[in-house]
Amino acid sequence: MIKLKRIILMATAMLLINTSHAVVDYDAGILTIQGVQVFQDAQDANAYYYLPQYPRIATNSAGDFEILLLKYLDAGTDNNGGIFHTLIEFALPDDVRESVAEELADLRPGAELIGALPLLQADEDDPVGGFRVISATLGSSDAGGVDSKVITSGPAALAPGAKAAVAAHLSQQDATILMESLTGATSDISVAIRGYYEAKVKGYNAVVSASMDTVYSHDSIISSYQKGYTKRQLRDVVDELVQDGAINIEVFDRSAALNIDSDDLAKVLDLVTDKITELMFDTETGWSKVPTPEVAVAEDQIKGRLDQGWFRRTFLGEEDVPYYTDDQFVLKRREDIRSNRFYLNLSKSTTIKLPFDSTGNLGGFYNALSEAQRERYFRVIALDRDIDMQTREVFFQVDGEIAEGFSNTFNNVAINVRQTPVEDTPVDSRQLVFDTQSITTGSATQSLNFYRLGDETDEWTNFEYQVAWNLKGRDDPIREPTNANSWIKSKDAIVALLPPLTRQNVMFDVDTADFADKDIVAVVVQVASIIDGTPMFVENLRFRADDPELSKEVTLFSDPDETLAYRTIWYTRQGEARDGFKPINGGFVFVFSPAAEWLDGQLGNS
Questions:
Q1: Is the confidence at residue 465, as pLDDT, over 90?
Q2: Residue-range domains of the chain with CATH
Q3: Which is more confidently placed, 537 or 283?
Q4: Burial level of 394, CB count in 10 A (0-12/13-18/19+)?
Q5: How high is the pLDDT of residue 475?
Q6: How far apart are CA 258 and CA 205, in angstroms?
Q7: 283 in helix, strand or coil?
Q8: Phi (first) and psi of residue 241, to 5 degrees
Q9: Among residues 464, 483, 543, 478, which one has the least CA distance to residue 511?
Q10: Going edge to edge, which strands form the sheet with 551-558?
């Protein structure tokens, strides 16, 4: 017994599939919130994606689960088995998604959960990637037992909104095992998904920072007290120069592991570092150049307040002028602060492809349903008692009596059959064809099944049919009924098909005793009939003088009340002679050679 007639595993992208492309930040890490993995977008630090936990049975727009396990039984037959069909989706329930979004906002103020992270399909280098159904029941074994088998469907339902379909036609045993399995906490069907997502990762990063602070301070205090021509000076000068410099280089390098070419960045780093070092410690023109010092008190910086002016010296001569005491105090303070800063960040990132695997089991689903839901998704039907599934077989048989003469008159017979149409019900018309080969080889019976389809009355047993007998050498068939728009009504289990013609068996017997005397070589008997109002030849029987069998029986058809006719054509060594048509009366026709005088006359005329 074949345990699995066929398995169809399809991953069909449905409507509303999100085809957007997303890249996450690898270095930002992965958050796990309520068991759900959350990833930060590579471009927007406040945008986050989630990945569903595992594949699950899909639901439609009405909230109904898209799964069916149908077990059917037909008493007294081998037509027992089951059908399993379900849609699988890789999605997160709305309530879980909303809860994760709220907790993310609490953990990262300003963060937003913008949607599911689209996964990429497995490529040719990963034959086990994509969508897999893992089941023992859905496998088959030549040994008659049930063995484990992994079935790969190909493309997977990885994009948000996509669904994958799993359909199997099961044997009776497999249907029973699978139904029992689905009622437990763990079922015999698991669905595994493997996909990939892209992440931006920092491959090379070099930071150069340099700073130089130069602080120059100058203090100058001068005290001068004058009385008469006596001058005393006191000077206190303080000079201070403080220089502080630092250079820092940090290099982060993953280039070898990620196969990134970072030679260009390394060369830039070396060049910049050399130039910054030279600039920092160049005391002539660089950052460490010493400021020009301040002169504390220069000569003649402090003068007498009543110094003799030009007019007095020119016109009054060197007259002694009194000099008053002058007490003076000069305080100087100068501070130069020079700060030089340099910062350089050399960075190179790449995108890597990371695998993601998830597996879900269909177990526990049955126990979570109500009794009404169980009857909807898990059904057992008896085909012989279900009025939706009851059938009735009707046989159409070409009557065996016409089989022998069928090939002489007919090409084939075609039958159109339909159940009696009901108002607002589409008409289901079917066809049967019997040709010469099927009839002469004994296949003169064909059947059709009519379905009850929930009809609680006996009307479903009524049917209608039309018959077309296609004649040799004729384009138009003999129709029953004659009006092409009419139908023959019936409710019989067997319909015998007979053409609307009279059938007659006729034996032709030829006497060849005097053929040699009259130089007759052979005779041909042509039989004519009127069928559907048209005269036509239906047989050509040839008899030779030396034939061992000089009797032939044929089956002939004609319109009712029409007479069959025949004529003979005599072949001699001198030529041929034809006589006229004669009616066939009865089932025997004896053919005798014509008189020699008549034969000579016909040959002479020809």
A1: yes
A2: 4-187+362-379 (no CATH), 202-348 (no CATH), 391-498 (2.60.40), 503-605 (2.60.40)
A3: 537
A4: buried
A5: 83
A6: 13
A7: coil
A8: -130, 120
A9: 543
A10: 551-558, 502-510, 588-591
Q: With H, G, I as helix, E, B as strand and everything else as coil, classify residue 321.
A: coil
| Of 504, 517, 488, nearest in space to 596 by CA | 517
Q: Write b or e for each residue in 341-352: b if 16 or more Cβ atoms lie within 10 A of its Cβ, otherwise e.
A: ebeeebebbbeb
Q: Tell whether pTM > 0.85.
A: no
- Other CB atoms within 10 A of residue 377 CB: 19
Q: Is 497 helix (H, G, I), strand (E, B) or coil?
A: strand
**How far apart are alpha carbons 304 and 291 in whole angstroms?**
33
- The residue that leads in pLDDT, 150 or 405, is 405
DSSP character string of 183-244: TSSS-SEEEEEEEEEEEEEEEEEEEEEEEEEEEEEEEEEEEEEEETTEEEEEEEEEEEEEEE
Q: Could you give the 3-state DSSP secondary structure of residue 113?
A: strand
Mean pLDDT for 566-594 is: 90
Q: Are 577 and 596 in contact (CB under 8 A)?
A: no
The greatest distance separating any two alpha carbons of the chain, rounded to the nearest whole angstrom, comes to 203
Q: With contact defined as beta carbons under 8 Å apart, do 193 and 51 qualify? A: no
Question: Among candidates 253, 250, 266, which has minimal Cα distance to 204?
Answer: 253
User: For residue 51, what are the CA distances in angstroms to 28, 38, 107, 530, 532?
Assistant: 16, 7, 18, 83, 78
Helical spans, DSSP H, in 229-385: 255-258, 263-280, 310-315, 371-377
Written as one letter, the residue type at 110 is: G
Q: How far is CA 495 from the centre of its chain?
A: 48
Residue position matching structure tokens 């009366």: 585
| Cis geometry, peptide bond prior to residue 481 (ω within 30 degrees of 0) | yes
pLDDT digits (tens, 9 = 90+) for 154-206: 455 566 667 777 778 888 888 888 888 888 888 888 888 777 888 777 766 66
What one-character DSSP code corresponds to residue 306?
T
Percent residues over pLDDT 90 in the chain = 9
Torsion, Cα of 258, 262, 266, 268 (10° steps): -140
